[in-house]
Amino acid sequence: MRFEPFSRPLGRESLRRFMSKLTKARLSDGAWPWAGGSGGLAWMMILVGLIIGFGAGSQLGGDVTTTADLGAAATEAEAASGNASSNAIANRLPDVSAAGDLRVDQSTTSVVSASPSTSGVGVVTASLRVAESEVAGASSRKVAGVEVMISDDSSEQVVAQYAPISIDSLPIHRSSESGAAVESLTMVTRGEIESGESLGSSLRRQGISPGTIHLIASEMRKVFDFRRSRPGDAYRLGQDSDGRVLDFRYSQGPEESFYLAWEGTRYTVRQERAELRPQIAKIAGVVDSSFYGAVLALGEQSSLASEFARILAWDIDFSRNVHPGDEFQILYERLYRRNDDGDEIYVRPGRVLAGHYNGNVGEYTVVYFENEHGAGAYFRPDGSSVERAFLAAPLEFSRISSRFTRARPHPILKVTRPHPGIDYAAPRGTPIWAVADGVVEYRARAGASGNLVRIRHAGGYTSHYAHLSKFASDLSVGDHVDQKQLIGYVGSTGLSTGPHVCFRVKKDGRYVDPMRIASPAGAPVDEEKRPVFESVRDQLLADLGPGPMSVVDEAL
Question: How far is CA 534 from CA 330, 351, 470, 525, in A?
């Protein structure tokens, strides 16, 4: 007999045919292969080895040997009626359907696949001639794993092979395209310049490398010289995980900053002003010792007290006419900016929209109203203007250090003489403006008065502003100026003991008390605009609310 190599696993039917051939084989002398002698013993050992090996193979390759019954089922299916449907064929494969699912590929008439649900890795194929009409109506179900394929080859063919496996299905492989994008990591360093520090020393104190500090300083030099750094200046540095600078912001105040950013191929630098977003709020309280102190005690900035005092300056002298127990309410804008982290940061108070003051000096109410051109002014509820031809003061001052008097001991000369003006103390550099419309008559140094500006107004009035640190850059003799136009800055030039402005007013060549000027009132609301004004007034006063409030910062 002739032995073929075992290139594929044997099914039960194949083994039966092999045994039949073996029992009919004879040697040349007519003896059975196992009959006597050493040759018979060798044949017996071969037979036993084949049986044992086949049994072990069945246990080790359970999925393959189980599906080997497909050969017999396929042969029976071929002998069955040619009109048998593909569903009948599936039913004739109990071992396969028990192991998994049967799939008849409707794209061809020659392939049926069965996939067991176990973890086998082999692919078993067997042949079966299937009529096109039988496959066309079959259903299709697909399960990953071992496939059993029936092609239109009438000869039985059982082949064991490994199914192809995609590398993306392996647990150790992760495709960069299929996975979610890795979120970038930004490391943020914040700090403030302390007394005696430079930007470089402040960054080094926080562990920033010299190379990074050099990059920031060299790039930012285009818009800011860090030799002008001041204690309290704030910075924010953003870096990626490799330490590369993504952005850097340096701020000398809440509204202005210098910004460095990586734009993909290069760094860009620019100076930025924060976009301020207003929110309406109201504040109210009772004066304890001073109006400014009451506003600060409620957690608001002093600039709100200064602005409210300026609005009512024609009616109330907040340096002399404020008493404990006076009540006030202010409806105003709070201005916010958004920082680099997306947080809303309060910057400062904005416009006063409405206000009420009730005290020993009287009761006063004001509302803000804009015309169609956006020009706004303050009016009383009846539509009359609170403003007058002359401002009560030429600046936002901290206090009055000396008043109009006929006899005052001079702090430097140590003699008593008249002081025909008012000294307003304020920080050096505080802006000074014209108290009324007029024409500049004098702009120069004037002995003990230091830097002096004199303006001529209508009605025989002149106003004088002494001890200025410097003049407005665009101010010249002969210029026309408007009320509240900038003319200079607070200083201490001339005969002066500290920064202030000495403000004096003459009427027809004689000094008069600026506090007692009978200044005509400003223009009232136009009659054509009165309906609109009344609507705005009613809404603002409703938001302002009556009486003092215990909650002083209530967002509307």
Answer: 19, 20, 44, 10
Cβ atoms of residues 492 and 399 within 8 Å:
no
* 3-class secondary-structure state, position 247: strand
What's the CA gap between 489 and 394, in Å, rounded?
A: 11
Q: Which residue has the tokens 């800055």?
A: 489
- Write down the H helix ranges in 141-252: 199-205, 210-220
> What would the two tokens of residue 258 be?
């210098």
- Encode the chain (556 residues) as per-residue pLDDT tens digits: 444 444 445 455 555 565 565 555 544 444 444 444 455 555 566 666 666 665 545 444 444 444 444 444 444 444 444 444 444 444 444 444 344 444 444 444 444 444 444 444 444 344 344 434 344 444 444 444 444 444 444 444 444 455 565 655 555 445 444 444 445 688 999 999 999 999 999 999 999 999 999 999 999 998 999 988 999 999 999 999 889 999 999 999 888 999 999 998 999 999 999 889 999 999 999 999 889 999 999 999 999 998 998 898 888 878 778 899 999 999 999 999 988 888 898 999 999 999 999 999 899 999 999 877 777 899 999 999 998 888 878 887 767 877 877 666 767 666 777 888 898 888 999 999 999 999 999 999 998 889 999 999 988 999 999 999 999 999 999 999 998 899 999 999 988 888 999 999 999 999 998 878 877 777 899 899 999 999 999 999 999 987 544 334 443 4
- Predicted TM-score of the model (pTM): 0.53
Residues 502 and 391: their CA atoms lie apart, in Å, by: 15
Tell me how far apart the alpha carbons of residues 113 and 135 are, in angstroms, rounded to a whole number.
Answer: 12
Structure-token pair, residue 211: 């190379």
Dist. CA 99–CA 90, nearest whole Å: 13
**Positive or negative, the Cα torsion across 363, 368, 371, 376?**
positive
Q: β-pairing, 486-490 with 100-104?
A: unpaired
**∠ CA 96-66-149 to the nearest 5 degrees?**
50
C-alpha 115/C-alpha 10 separation (Å) is: 20
Enter the tokens of residue 525. Answer: 């609301």
Q: Which element (helix H / strand E) includes 362?
A: strand 362-370
Q: Are the beta carbons of 155 and 4 closer than 8 angstroms?
A: no
Q: Count helices and strands (H / E) in the chain.
A: 12, 28
Sign (positive/negative) of CA torsion 465, 468, 472, 473? positive
d(CA 250, CA 237): 9
